[in-house]
Specification:
signal; 8-stranded mixed sheet; 2 domains; alpha+beta; globular; Rossmann fold; 4-stranded antiparallel sheet; metal-binding; single chain; protease
């Protein structure tokens, strides 16, 4: 795979330009927590913190070409993936360049704690005054709308000119927590608000691993729906493979064993290894413990004999970067999934709203490129706000409704996992809502029911819950999507505004570039609708929960399924997109059994299911056994 003419250097230049065009927002504009952070003034000069200094790849265009060769069946490099040491020698900064950075830090009194094995991250600790001196980062203390204290540069940071060729970004100067959200949702909240019944918990009966009951589906049901059983029949259970989970919350491993036992799976009691990155994430329902729990249960349930490594980090800017770099640098996992993210547009430096920069997305891209070069297949949830990903930004509806995609799912080296609703009858308080066929997940299919039984005021009650998808305005369309039927460009008239709820004054934030030929997502999808969703066992959330869904299920499920396929092919699989897209546009061999099933119904509030690709369900859902057969 290649980004074509848009390599890393071009993307970095585009990032710098795009950051300038963002409109200025009012100082009191609410951020992700729902209220504007309160500036408490300059940080104490001797206050310490630890940062992650992300270094730039070398020979990035050659890395793109190498990755493409590793997944080309006609190349002598096919599936000849790199070790971490080989990757570092070929593509990471030289030891001399790293020494330049560490010498610079030492000269400013900043202590180097660690250099990651891949040579792309330096962990370092210093004081506010030292970081101000080194990176012109004038640190201020803040308190967010939930009363949590944090600090960040009042006006960003700058890399010294003589190190600009080595340093990409300094993460961790901003210590704000809860910057990223899990992509899971439950039916019970909306049902309770309407006085409707909660989904009932139904466990498998007898020797079954499946329930056959929508809302109480298990991984056994996923195997039934998506062609996994033929792999099990051949003895493919994930043995010899290791599944990786990247997450921003800690969890109780006992919950996973309880779930697997309840659905009749006999698994190794020592299969899970936990790695707490940067001290690890919080262990609470509010922090998202249930999110990590479902990731482990779903991926591990589909590949019951695979080992598992769960990397958890704090929900901060540095935490989200470090968790990927640590997992990929360790290079012990064969597949890796993440169910957290944030709207891509928040990376465009909009004062008062965004707390990241475009450099963060490039930082993600570097590590996902390394993963592909090492043969690790990576999956990310595409989001649960349909085509309107900014609806996850509090305090909605003070922001206008614009079409956006989620990061890091939008990265071209990541398989973006979208959502569907499976066919069936959904029992509601006043009757049945019939879903005639598996369709793109978007809760507007409840509109007729809501209007008939609650009145027109409820028409958009479920807006905009559904499978994430759309067009990136940052990542150009990758070669594997070229000539694929159904590719879209970014839509016109997408103006992001904020209306102050107290004064009614509307402020302009940003105009999303129109007609951009960008990366389309999702790539593939699985059932994610809570009303046709799943069981989860979570101690932090009180035990068994039914009616759980979101694309947070699709990404770990794909993680587990492709761990099976990796075992079946006796190899890591690396970048999956060329095979999934049947190689159109790059001369890849066309497969007679591509293993994807088109979804031609439903919508995610904007993109409708049609023949061919669409940014609702992507290429469609999968048939795992057919996919395994399609890979040579």
């Amino acid at each position: 795979m290649s980004l074509g003419k848009h390599g890393f250097h071009e993307l970095m230049r585009a990032a710098l330009c795009a950051a300038i065009v963002a409109g200025a927002a009012p100082a009191a504009l609410a951020g992700r927590s729902g209220a504007a952070p309160l500036d408490l003034g300059a940080t104490a000069a001797d206050a310490t913190q630890t940062v992650s200094i992300i270094l730039k790849l070398r020979r990035a265009d050659e890395l793109d070409a190498f990755i493409a060769a590793t997944v080309d069946p006609d190349s002598p490099l096919y599936h000849r993936f790199l070790t971490t040491e080989q990757f570092r020698a070929a593509f990471a900064p030289s030891r001399n360049d790293i020494r330049r950075v560490t010498d610079f830090l030492a000269a400013n009194g900043i202590v180097v704690n660690e250099v990651y094995p891949n040579g792309l991250i330096i962990k370092a600790t210093g004081t506010a005054s030292q970081f101000t001196q080194a990176f012109q980062a004038i640190m201020h203390d803040y308190r967010d709308g939930d009363g949590r204290a944090f600090r960040r540069p009042a006006h960003g940071h700058k890399v010294p000119r003589d190190l600009d060729d080595v340093i990409l970004y300094v993460a961790g100067l901003n210590t704000q927590s809860s910057q990223f959200r899990p992509h899971s949702t439950q039916a019970k909240a909306k049902a309770a608000a309407l006085g409707e019944a909660q989904p009932a918990v139904v466990l498998p009966a007898g020797n079954n691993t499946a329930t056959g009951v929508p809302g109480s589906f298990t991984t056994g049901d996923v195997a039934n729906m998506y062609g996994v059983n033929p792999l099990y029949a051949k003895g493919v259970t994930g043995k010899g493979k290791t599944i990786g989970i990247a997450t921003l919350a800690n969890f109780y491993p006992s919950d996973a064993y309880t779930y697997w036992s309840a659905i009749g799976l006999n698994v190794s009691p020592t299969r899970i290894t936990q790695v707490h990155v940067d001290g690890g994430g919080d262990l609470s329902a509010k922090a998202g413990s249930g999110e990590t729990t479902l990731d482990v249960q779903q991926s591990g349930g589909l590949a019951p004999d695979a080992k598992m490594v769960v990397y958890d980090a704090p929900n901060t800017e540095a935490g989200f970067i470090d968790v990927f770099y640590k997992a990929v640098a360790d290079n012990t996992v064969d597949t890796l999934s993440v169910s957290w993210g944030s709207p891509e547009i928040l990376n465009y430096e909009i004062p008062g709203v965004s707390t990241e920069s475009l450099g963060v997305m490039v930082a993600y891209h570097q590590v996902f490129a390394e993963a592909a070069a090492q043969g690790i297949s990576t999956f990310a949830s595409a989001g649960d706000d349909g085509a309107y990903d900014t609806n996850s930004v509090a305090p909605y509806p003070a922001f206008s409704k614009i079409l956006t995609v989620d990061s890091p799912a939008a990265d071209p080296y990541v398989v973006a996992a979208g959502g569907t609703t499976i066919a069936g009858d959904i029992q509601r308080k006043y009757g049945v809502v019939h879903v005639p066929t598996e369709q793109v997940w978007g809760w507007d299919y409840f509109n007729d029911y809501l209007i008939a039984n609650y009145g027109s005021d409820y028409k958009d009650y479920y807006f905009s819950v559904g499978g994430g998808g759309g067009v990136s305005v940052f990542w150009p369309q990758p070669d594997y999507q070229k000539n694929t039927r159904g590719m879209r460009r970014s839509e016109p008239n997408q103006v992001w505004t904020y209306t102050d709820p107290t004064t009614g004054v509307q402020s302009y934030l940003y105009t999303v570039p129109a007609n951009v030929k960008g990366r389309n997502l999702p790539d593939i999808s699985l059932n994610s609708d809570p009303y046709t969703g799943y069981l989860v066992y979570s101690t932090a959330d009180g035990g068994w929960i039914a009616g759980y869904g979101g694309t947070s299920f699709a990404s770990p499920q794909l993680n587990g399924i492709f761990a099976l396929i990796s075992q079946a092919k006796s190899s890591r699989l690396g970048l999956l997109h060329p095979m999934l897209y049947r190689g159109r546009g790059e001369g890849w061999r066309r497969q007679s059994q591509p293993g994807t099933v088109d979804i031609t119904a439903g919508d995610n509030w904007f993109y409708s299911g049609v023949a061919g690709y669409e940014p609702g369900a992507g290429l469609g859902v999968i048939n795992a056994a057919a996919l395994a057969q399609a890979i040579r």
